[in-house]
Amino acid sequence: MTLRDALLAGLNSLPGTREFHLHVLVSSPRKHGNLFPFANPRPRSYLQDILILLSEQPTPDSPSVFVSAIEACVYNIPTTSCAILYVSKVDSTGQATAPSPTPALVRALLLFYADPATRPISAEHLWIHVFARAQNQYLFPNSSEYPKKHPLSDIRLCAWWKRQFSTVVGELATRVGDTCRTKLYYILPGLSEFEAYHSLERVYPSTGSTSSWTYGHPYSQDEIPLPCPCPSGGDSPRHLGQCIPSFDDDPKSRFIDEIAYTTDADGVKSPERKRPRADTLKTHEEDSSSADASEKKEGRSKKEDQTHKEVKKVSVEEFWERMSFRQECIAGAVTGFFVIAVSATTTPTANLSISEVSPLAPQPGQVSSQMNKRVLTSLLTAHEFPSVEKAVWSTKVIEDSIRGLCDGLKSNPHSLVVPDRSGRRTPEPDPVRATLAPPQTPPPRLVNGKRPIVDISPNPFPEPVASLETYHSYIFGSIAVKNRPPPTKERGEATSAGNGTLPTITVLTARKKRTKS
Known about the structure:
It is a single chain. With 517 residues, the protein is of the alpha+beta class. It contains 12 helices and 10 strands. β5, α2 and β6 (125-132) form a beta-alpha-beta unit. It is globular, with a radius of gyration of 28 Å.
């Protein structure tokens, strides 16, 4: 089963009558060396980008409009047979028919990777990471201006994620039984376990849920292996850089970088020595060049050792305690960190054939990372969703662009200009480009003012080229939902007596104090 088919199956049980159109972009694996930047040696990991766009068509005559979107990343660490699913952004436009399809879409994605039978990666252990931070919009620009969009508050968003994970774990248990063990962890920085539990229970009570949650971090348990290999065969304890993975736009990663690179404890440093003049050192060129190279190498190794030492000074418990004082976690809103671990006790037969293939080999239906980035950049920078009219136009443009990229977009040919007999010609202006601009290599991303260390070894497999067959078989899919409409609340359900009559409201007034005359 492909990811597209699993997501469509998750939407099939939604109440009401409507039609969904789904676009799923999964990039081919590529080398990624910054998942554990402070581990020595760094484990080999491979990264895949996931972009899911869901549009809805209420009636056959109405236009299609985007209603939900998910951006996620999948990391594969073959050394420990672990995989990490990081759900970075989930957003909606607020223009879907009630009930919203976003919860069903998220649960279908999580269940697809949590179930070992459908997991497309040869990994026995899966870690799911989510950082819950309430904002008005994530993937649909200006969608917060739409009147019917009601973003969840901070506590409601954390409770929403906890409820989705509990539902996924419960459904996974019915599928696989005792062949998988799961562990669920969550932390709300700044709140104690008692405060966090009762704050979330007031929003979504966990009645009937069999999931057992642990308030804390998962890096002290040893039942499910962590993604980063244990140093020295398990003789020495793990430090902070070998426990917490580094993701983009994640406060944990920024805090670890701040701990590692805040090493200027000796005050102001002297400026680096200038390069000597060539005419004064002609006789000692070889000696000076070798000395400079050795000094640079020693300085680089010393600075790297210093950053690792700073990270080793902070324990995992101290890290999470200090996270409670970070501005990103206590700036007037409650945030939440959720980690789910799924470990298979038996290796499924479906993944035996996948394990024989190289982790870098592209699978059928995958696209290049540049195509995924191109569509996401167009969604975030060239479109907006404040109204139905603009959302419909943006939906059509993006959906046509995805199909066009699979079909092979070509720019309009330049018009031929025939010079006259005199040999003179008037230069024609460049034609207006009717298609998307070709992808360009962005400038290198700097980490603390320096380029990150990348793996220079080339990828032996070429980037996959999408075609119309890929588009129809793996990327695009639609499903017509025809179920009973959701039950509507009667007027009497909102009253205290339940007999359809409005409750009696008694207004109390303050009694004025009489003054003695």
